[in-house]
TrEMBL record:
Lineage: Eukaryota, Fungi, Dikarya, Ascomycota, Pezizomycotina
Protein family per UniProt: Belongs to the trichodiene synthase family.
UniProt entry keywords in alphabetical sequence: Lyase
Transmembrane segments: none
Superkingdom, natural source: Eukaryota
Matches recorded under Pfam families: TRI5
GO MF terms, alphabetically ordered: carbon-oxygen lyase activity, acting on phosphates
Protein name according to UniProt: Trichodiene synthase
Amino acid sequence: MGQHVSTLQNQLSALQHSKWSLQSPNYRPANLLCPPTSLKEHEGPEEDLGAVLRPMISSFASNIGYTSSPPEPSAELWIAMRAFADQLGVNYDEGTHSWKCFRVGISYAAVCLPKHPLEVQVYVGTYSWLGLLLDDETAKSPDDFSRFVQCFALGERQPTPLLEGWAELMRLSFKYWDPVVANFIVSSSMNFVNANVLETRDEFKKLEPTRGGKSWPWFLRDKDGVAEAYAWFTFPKIPYDDMSNYLEMIPDLSSYIALTNDILSFYKEEKNGDKDNYVHSRGWLQMITYWVM
């Protein structure tokens, strides 16, 4: 796992050096949420982004060595996950955004955890569905989301079905994972909500990058990507009843999940003009180091 993560980090570094190199030592990034309007402001001869990324992603996919056709969700999984979703009371009518997120969640469970027990697949599929919704909905009602951890700690009901469903998943994690592992899943899930709330705050939006903040992009990425929880999902207590067999791989697996997501999402986000991501944040802070030195 460590080699794969190192490879991804090297690819990120190469991409940042080629696309964000400074033309002038007087360049100053305004703040973490106000990047240059285009990569072309700081690059050399115009180069198609797809042409730059394609060989890196092709090499990455080839090195993984995954050749099997991705499995489709079974009828059994569809029935079980829809039944659980109905219990939670979160709307997922066909054709809605929630329905699209539901389909992503069930596909993730089928493709990534094909040999896991059905109940675990339902859990992870539902977690993925609700997590996507949480990521989208936080900015619409930040006050409700900011109280999530407090309500959970006090044993109070959450203000919306979505947040109550997330809380129910936290409680249910102890059924399928070792108590210590479940604790990590819960803490990662809470960090995810809190990081999303943080990103809505004015204090965050006006944050200006400094040379001393070079660790900040990864700190935030580690929290808002909930990758640690997904790393732990790999090892439910049945059949993985001995944590000593997998504990050491969790940090690399967590980083691998987060960075892979960033690599595979980068082209889409760049074309959509989305600069609020780890690649850009890390790149801007690297630029500060260049002009300060």
